[in-house]
Amino acid sequence: MVCLILKDNFFSMSKLVLPLLAILLLVSCREQTDKDLKDSNPVEMEVQPVNMGKYSQNLQDVFAAHGGLEKWNNMHSLTFTMPGENKDEVQTIDLKTRKTFIKTEKYDLGFDGEKIWLQQDSTYFKPERAEFYYNLMFYFYAMPFVLADDGITYTDVPALEMNGVSYPGIKVSYDAGIGNSPDDEYILYYDPSTKQMAWLSYTVTYGKEGKSDKLSYINYNKWQEINGLLLPEELTWYNVENGKPTEPSGPARKFTKVDIDAAAMDNSMYEKPSAGVFVNE
Fold it and tell me: 241 pairs with which residues across the strands?
């Protein structure tokens, strides 16, 4: 009788213990996978105090409304996903070096700190387009903080009048030799009450000679707070008439699974895979 009771208890305990062991094993593997993505030998980076004196009070207010430039400078890596009808695009960026890794079903695209590389099974990307695209969405996504980069000149400009609201503007110009397109110009328009960024107008000069007068507009109307920073949840491009935005030119570009972290990702993530090629070599 005792043996039967012990046997029944053993099998009852087994039914409980085995699933628990399986769950613990899965959690352990997941934690190890996530850990492996982080730099196994992270470099401690000393964050220098931010010299806010070089920014106008208006721009300082915008940075503060989005969590503050000092908090942004404390972050090391940024990851976000852009859902698509046929594919999701996952981008990971080292905020200190601007190394980049873009992962999709059709291609992998990256910047190792010196060279742009591409791995694809077809001719989805031409080399010149890859060179233009690799940091494009990051730059739009990381507004307004990327406007604190070195080599930038700021000028207050007339406000953008939209739907009864007057959005003050700050024009951004680049010093010669800064970036791939120093002739590009950006104007940040912010909400006068919240100080949050509301619109971005910009010109594109990549692959062209001299400045462009063709304006594009993005509406920044939906934000999400990630680790104390206010980052875009979606961006909407607009049609333009007479130099002003009129109506959305298509569906909003959404950003999900966003993570911004003070830890660095492993440098191997940004290196060219063996099947990849360096762009324009």
Answer: 244
d(CA 67, CA 89): 26
3-state DSSP call for residue 241?
strand
DSSP-derived secondary structure letter, 7:
H
* Choices 3.30.470, 2.50.20, 1.10.8, 2.60.120: CATH for 53-278: 2.50.20
Question: Which DSSP category does 29 fall into?
Answer: H
Question: Which residues, 6 or more positions from 18, have their beta carbon under 8 angstroms from its beta carbon?
Answer: none
Dihedral in degrees, nearest 10, Cα atoms 52, 58, 64, 70? -20
Nearest to 98 by CA among 145, 156, 57: 145
Which two structure tokens, joined as six digits, stand for 118? Answer: 């591409």
Contact 147, 172 (CB under 8 A): yes
pLDDT in tens, 56-95: 999 999 999 999 999 999 999 999 999 987 789 999 999 9
Domain spans, the chain: 1-37, 53-278
Strand partners of residue 66: none
Q: Worst-scoring range by mean pLDDT, 44-48, 72-76, 235-239? A: 44-48
